Amino acid sequence: MTTPKAEAPTGRPRTPEKDAPRRRRRTGRWILLTLAVLVLAGAGTGYWLYDSLDGNIKGVDLDQSLGDDRPAKLPTSGQNVLVLGSDSRAGANAATGTGHVAGARSDTALVIHIPEGRQKAVAVSIPRDTLVTRPECAKADGSKLPSADRVMFNSVYSAAGPACVVKTVEKMSGVRLDHFVEIDFAGFQGLVDAIGGVPVTVDRDIHDSSSGLDLAAGTHRLDGTQALQFVRTRHGIGDGSDLGRIGMQQKFLMALLAEIKRQDLMGSPAKAYAVADDLTTALTTDSGLASLSKLAEFSRSMNGVDTSTMETIMLPVRYDTQDPNRVVAAEPQAKQLWAALRTDGTIPDSAKKSPARGGATP
Q1: Tens-place pLDDT, residues 43-62
Q2: Cis ω on the peptide bond leading into residue 16 (within 30° of 0)?
Q3: What is the pLDDT of residue 173?
Q4: pLDDT tens-digit map of 122-139
């Protein structure tokens, strides 16, 4: 099966090492959006307003889609949640200008493990270029997608949808996923617009014809469209590499968090409703979370988790011997990592090292 090669800014195929900053910024973006939804759902203030938003959330019945052939549930009260960042060009995303790939792919995939006690969490990032064995999956039209070896991980979503991604992750890890949450690009843009924009300061002019960003030095309040351009910009800053873009990402995310805190959204039901409306429209979850009341209950169960201390680990990978532009799970590190999640145990330091990066994962 032939898979398209992702391109680096230089036009050369990307490598996992060069993609590390890209993974970190996507990780931060999707964790932020997911937590924003859960915080709004669990706030309680003006909850009667949020009840009308239930119809916005799209739900997928994993039990019906996946059947009984699934890994065993955790032996503790811990939870595993798959977070997908979708780069769909459909619907509201068509106007975001976020890329050129037709259809939809899982731009980001994170397995968030919340151990028993729910006082902390760890996010395991699965590189999009990882070659995996895709199990047989049911497609939306009821037909069967046959299993296939050496499939690029981020192609699974476009082939058979989110339930197939869940099944693929469960098969490759042996980890039972209790929930999944998917957010698309429109959710990011809608969040920024709903809070009236985010102020950022740049110390030099930025003109990036690729992303469309055009800013003079100084402070600007970016709307949703400009925010997407800002976090995707690499040309016109630094040496044009992802090293400069990760700095832009960090700058924006810090500004966004500061603006949300400054506005005290929970003290403004009308604005909180607007934010929740945008985000829930861009949200797909498993049926166990597909309502504001269910999201609120899940959110309250995680009140003790300190998101500032969340650890992010990349699935340990090595370069594929047949195609150096792709990676495969590195052993025994990957098995050690998944075993820790299956048993709600401590992840050993050895499982946090990726041979493809020559050191610790991000």
Answers
A1: 444 455 556 677 888 899 98
A2: no
A3: 97
A4: 888 888 889 999 999 988
Give yes or no for a contact between 227 and 192, defined as CB atoms under 8 angstroms apart.
yes
At 332 the three-state DSSP class reads coil
d(C-alpha 56, C-alpha 58), whole Å? 6
Chain segment 295-346, per-residue pLDDT in tens? 777 877 776 776 667 777 889 999 999 998 889 999 999 999 999 999 999 9
DSSP letter string over 142-201?
SPEEPPEEEEEGGGHHHHH-HHHHHHHHHHHH-PPP-EEEEEEHHHHHHHHHHTT-EEEE
CA 25/CA 232 separation, integer angstroms? 10
Tokens of 207: 């003109």
137-138 and 144-145 beta bridge pairing = antiparallel
Q: What is the pLDDT, as a whole number, of residue 120? A: 81
200 phi and psi, to 5 degrees? -135, 155
Task: Answer with the residue of higher pLDDT: 57 or 167.
Answer: 167
Coil, strand, or helix at residue 260? helix
Give me 90's structure tokens: 């459909």
Look up residue 55 and give its two tokens.
Answer: 């119809």
**Dist. CA 139–CA 326, nearest whole Å:** 26
**224 Cβ partners below 8 Å, 6+ apart?**
188, 189, 190, 191, 192, 193, 197
Burial pattern 148-178, b for ≥16 Cβ within 10 A else e, equals: eeebbbbbbbbbbbbbbbbbbbbbbbebebb
Residue 175 and residue 342 in contact, taking contact as beta carbons nearer than 8 Å: yes
Q: What are phi and psi of 361, to 5 degrees?
A: -80, 160
- Give how far the C-alpha of residue 336 lies from the chain's centroid of Cα atoms, to the nearest Å: 23
* Cβ atoms of residues 271 and 190 within 8 Å: no
The 8 Å CB, 24+ separation contacts for 338-346 are 338/173, 338/174, 338/175, 339/174, 341/80, 341/111, 341/113, 341/124, 341/173, 341/175, 342/71, 342/74, 342/173, 342/174, 342/175, 342/176, 343/74, 343/75, 344/74, 344/75, 344/76, 344/78, 344/115, 344/116
Interatomic CA distance for residues 359 and 341, integer angstroms: 21
